[in-house]
Automatic annotation (TrEMBL):
Belongs to the Homer family. InterPro entries: Homer (IPR045027), Homer_EVH1 (IPR044100), PH-like_dom_sf (IPR011993), WH1/EVH1_dom (IPR000697). This is WH1 domain-containing protein. Keywords: Coiled coil, Cytoplasm, Synapse. GO terms for biological process: G protein-coupled glutamate receptor signaling pathway. The keyword Coiled coil applies. Residues 117-152 are annotated as: Disordered. Its main location: cytoplasm. PANTHER family: HOMER (PTHR10918).
Amino acid sequence: MSVEQPIFSTRAHVFQIDPSTKKNWVPTSKHAVTVSYFYDSTRTVYRIISLDGSKAIINSTITPNMSFTKTSHKFGQWADSRANTVYGLGFSSEAHLSKFADKFAEFKEAARLAKERSQEKMELTSTPSQESATGELQSPVTPESINGTDERVTPDAAFNTEINAVLFPHSSTSISKHWEAELATLKGNNAKLTAALLESTANVKQWKQQLAAYQDEAERLHKRVTELECVSGQTAGVKTQKTELNQTIEELEAELKAREEELENLKQEVEEASQLQTQKDSLAQKLQETELRSAELESQLLDLEQRLENSQLESESFRRSLRSLLELLDGKIFELSELRDSLAKLMESDSS
């Protein structure tokens, strides 16, 4: 049974040439996926493999006749005559593209040397030279022959992804199914964590439960790392995976601390909001009481104004009556004065 080991991984957007036009790129992944170089020590074969879920979107054996071409500062391509297609990879930076291209050249040279050694052994044993089931075709399809022109195909969109080298061993035996199941499990757990984080922002009451769930998940990942180390401690890929899982755990723990701090801040804000609500209710009660008191005072003021108006009317009526009385008294006094004068004249006439 052949045993393949991951020897280098990166993340990129994967494309294949359109089989009908031979010019346009067709995306085979909705987002950036892990693209890994694998080495089969039994058959001395280097392969490029990429999975989107459980589906293999790249399964290309590197041959000495292949060449990796950089068509832009973030995009590269190579032709695979076995699959009769051209693969394209879009990277998040030029550095990631250069690293992938260097590895391609390195493993291509290693494949060439392995083929030469195999041919030498065949010649020494006088075995007719022929290609094995994993051999190479002598007339590979180049990007120019597939495109039909000398122009290099470039992607239609820019790429802005992150390198996240997560290695998952893959082979055609039961190991492949095992690791595919592990990959699906880890992706499922990742989806659950993402959903839990989104839900925590919408419902403050569920924070404690979600934080506890994160802690349980971190402990489970710790246990899973230990199990993977015990089961596959002899493979370099698992060691790399352990390092990455530990890094993921550290990131989750850091996020837990940040969420706990955010929860405390939310609690303080809730307490402050409760106090403000209490103050608001108290002020509203006082305002209501003040409005009632103001209404009573306005009613009293209207009553006093009515009384004052009535008093003024009575006073005016009294003044008119007094004025009439004075006029009448003046008339009587005038009459008495005339009567006095008449009596005086009468007395004077009698005395004479």
